[in-house]
Amino acid sequence: MKIIQKYNECIGCGSCVALCPKFWEMDNEGKAYLKGGKKNPETGDWELEIRKAGCNKDAVDACPVQIIKIVEC
């Protein structure tokens, strides 16, 4: 399973951070970033492999611009 975030499209609302602080944090630019994530050079998205969706499912549902998704690997 993998979390994918379109970082450049983040509006910095912080809902993902509030719901899932183990995986999300606000950066100095006022955007949320995926802790431990790596930038995919082909897509420009940030990605992190995970075992369980857990609170990230709530982060996906709460994101007002729908830039976070969870996909099966």
Q: What can you tell me about this protein's structure?
A:
The chain has 73 residues and is α+β, with helices and mostly antiparallel strands. It has a single domain (2-71), classed as Alpha-Beta Plaits, CATH 3.30.70. It has helices spanning 15-19, 56-62, and strands at residues 2-5, 24-26, 32-34, 38-39, 46-49, 68-71. The chain has a four-stranded antiparallel beta sheet with strand order 4-5-1-6, with helices on one face. A two-stranded antiparallel ribbon has the order 2-3. The N and C termini lie close together (5 Å). InterPro entries: 4Fe4S_Fe-S-bd, 4Fe4S_Fe_S_CS, Fe-S_cluster_ET. One of its GO terms (molecular function) is iron-sulfur cluster binding. It comes from Candidatus Tagabacteria bacterium RIFCSPLOWO2_01_FULL_42_9.
